[in-house]
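Still learning. Any example?
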Amino acid sequence: MERQGSRKHDSDGSGSRPMDEPGEAEIRMQLDRILTSTEFDVPTRVRQFLSYVVEQTLAGHADRIKAYSVAVEVFGRDANFDIQNDPVVRIEAGRLRRALERYYLLAGSLDQVLIEIPKGGYVPHFCWRLDHSSHSQLRSLPAAQPTPQPRPGFADLRRLSYLLKRPLLTGSAIALAIVTVLAFTWSSDLSRPDASSNDPAQPEGPSLIVKSFANLTRTSEGDIYAAGLSEEILAQLARFKELTVFGRETSNALSPGASAPEIRRQFGSRYILEGSIRMFDGRLRVTSRVLDGETSAIIWSDAYDANLRTSSIVDIEVSIASKVAAAVAQPYGILFRAPPASSLARPLPSFEAYQCSVRFYRYRNLPSEGEHAPTRDCLERMVARYPDHSTSWAMLSYLYLDEDRFDLNRRPGSPTPAERARDAAQRAVRLDPQNVRALQALMTVLFFSNEPAEALRIGARALTLNPNDAELLGEFGSRVAQAGDWKRGAALLEEAMARNPGHSDYYAGLLAFAAYMQGDVERAVELIRQADLQRFPIYHFAAALIFARAGLNVEAAQSRSEFLKLRRNFFNDFDGELNKRNFNARDRAILIQGAIQAGFPVKPSLADGSK
């Protein structure tokens, strides 16, 4: 993030501040926005911690914000508080920093006022995210709408995990009765996520049943933890629209000892997710795995450890459920890899839709002319057969857009590729306004239609719906970077790579370009060499610029030759290509000079700054 500088106070304690930094009203408005966001999911005392340090700083008392004062005035410690032996402030400060970072990556992705707690102290810094004089369009956007709050029953269940620690509430019968009652009250909330999936006009992707997690500790407290974790995983998985997730009622109908083939025969589910929890010595271990319903083969498994003494069960549940959902259900996760050969002969009604999805993500991983045409054809057959399937329209929008931006298998005539892409994306969103893939497609189309502010607003909305979707996170990060915020865009791309290491070539290429645009040539060279995108033309353009800047002339010449072979007409309208991608004046100048340095045929009118 580009910063204008940290807040400083006059020596008289008046709190006056430079004109190019946020004012008190703007900071307090931002504080309220953070505290009311569902993405800022922290205990009350952490919220009080943030409010305290902000208000003290605005009042000119930043010098009083020490561990001792926070412990006494926020956390209620007495005057004999021992800083050395009680780490409460340090622990809660770490939680606050992580919560702020998450908020600004997700719900606050377009907020222009930053509130940060730098490591090494507890005094907040306030600054603008972008240059305050040249980004008024982005700053004027409304904040992304938060996702709905969980129903009271869900929140009550989580609070019960704490209450059950009390001696009077340790009976397993009481605990299980409470869970049963609460489960009944929310039973209509997370049934099958896409009600239309039973409609014959809707194709289905891979289907999954989540079995209730087993409590191997066999305590009432463990029962609550296992139930809460199962519920959180169901909620996280339901956000992925390419996946059909059977609801709570189906999961509860399973007998604990039912085998994968039995579940498949009874419900038709292709995959089964199951797991267990074990508590010991203040720690929690969660294991989870996915089984193939036909063969009972384990196709994925993982284990997660957490410290119950330093983290709340709410934080633990959300963190583990997010990791499981990202590994299993994201577009490049285990369920969307190429299906086993044995299944190709099975005449499943929805199998063509699954094949189209697999083909689409394979194309997105390695974009090429050879993959583009058959993927487009497959998706066009899908929308002809299932005209109300939002995700197929969203995927098809990308294929139309790539005809234009990458010059792949362009169809002549009217409507133009850009017009077809926009129509498909808008139709996808109309069919399902909560479909993250539809919103992602519309974001991308709008960005390449010279509407970056609206594109980023829609992208931020999509991220609030599903922050675990690495495909969306990478796309959004790429657009944020291209809009000029290279540092923040790179941070989002790094997170996407961490969530989805199997897509690392694509992310490495984008991160290499981001490093180049920030002047970190050594990092750019390292990353571009990690990426293996030989069939992707823009990769060779970025590589040529990076190698030329690093003085690696042989590699630069090779990359230049490959790019011109694949995009021979690109420099006929280099200015138009830059405009299409919304590069600002600074970045345009860097790219034009970089292209000249790399030996590309840049027109003299661009080289001297005219058109």
Notes: Residues 24-139 form one domain. The two ends are 32 Å apart (CA to CA).
